[in-house]
Amino acid sequence: MLTDTHTHLNVRQFDDDRDEVIERARQNGVSRIVNIGFNRETIPSSIELTETYDFIYSTVGWHPQDAIDMKADDLDWIEELCAKPKVVAIGEIGLDYYWDTSPKDVQHRVFREQIRLARKLGMPISIHNRDAHHDVVQILREEKAEDVGGVMHCFSGSWETAKMCLDMNFYISFGGPITFKNAKQPKEVLAQVPLDRLLVETDAPYLTPHPFRGKRNETGYVRLVAEAAADIRGIPFEELARITSDNASRLFRFPQI
């Protein structure tokens, strides 16, 4: 019983074998999937997946890399889609200072607008944070994101940053990097996150875990992430899978299995 809380099954990398990838995930014990719609192209196809598979849910939001393309009508569109029963969060939203595709001031504005929408609707948020730890935390605080909480997707920050996010009602999610031999910091943080705030994900087709690193990631590989997380925490895999799935149920408000 596993929940992949962040994947991108609707992107072009899966166009040739999407159904087979989803079936392999089921065979690996994945009982629920949260797929991410993050711009004008991926939001409709993510919604379509939820209508095709009863165990797939979706987020809707605007990725910081695409912030420069977001219009006022797009925010209204996201609000409308949040009324759909299988849309479980607004995201992924946040800041990305690694890819120079949207000016920082535009990223900040779009991030704030979506947090405000989430608070208006009472929806949790899924946070993308790349090389922007200080500003992400500051904006979350200023916009009172603790009112809705959410998940820090594929967390890569320090334990100090993680504690600040936990204090704001966020879950901390880990992906493939915790399986990398030299990924010291993510493993150290995972070891300290309270079990009732821990989530696992793949971010497929990106961040493929060992031993498939360098190849396309798949949702079914969340099992490898969960096995590594269980080893780091010193608990049985089955317990880690149950705990993280129960956590996902609370956060995204879908039925427990």
Keywords:
257 residues, TIM Barrel, 18% strand, globular, DNA nuclease activity, hydrolase activity, acting on ester bonds, Metal_Hydrolase
What does this structure look like?
- The chain has helices at 18-27, 42-52, 72-81, 104-121, 133-142, 159-167, 184-190, 222-233, 237-252, and strands at residues 2-7, 30-37, 56-60, 87-96, 125-130, 150-152, 170-174, 198-200.
- Helix 8 packs across helix 9.
- Strand 6 (150-152), helix 6 and strand 7 form a beta-alpha-beta unit.
- It is α/β, with parallel strands linked by helices.
- It contains nine helices and eight strands.
- The model has no long low-confidence stretch (mean pLDDT 97).
- It has one domain: Metal-dependent hydrolases (TIM Barrel, Alpha-Beta Barrel), CATH 3.20.20.140.
- 40% of the residues lie in helices and 18% in strands.
Brief overview, please?
The chain is α/β, with parallel strands linked by helices. The protein is built from nine helices and eight strands. InterPro entries: DNase_TatD-rel_CS, Metal_Hydrolase, TatD-like, TatD/YcfH-like.
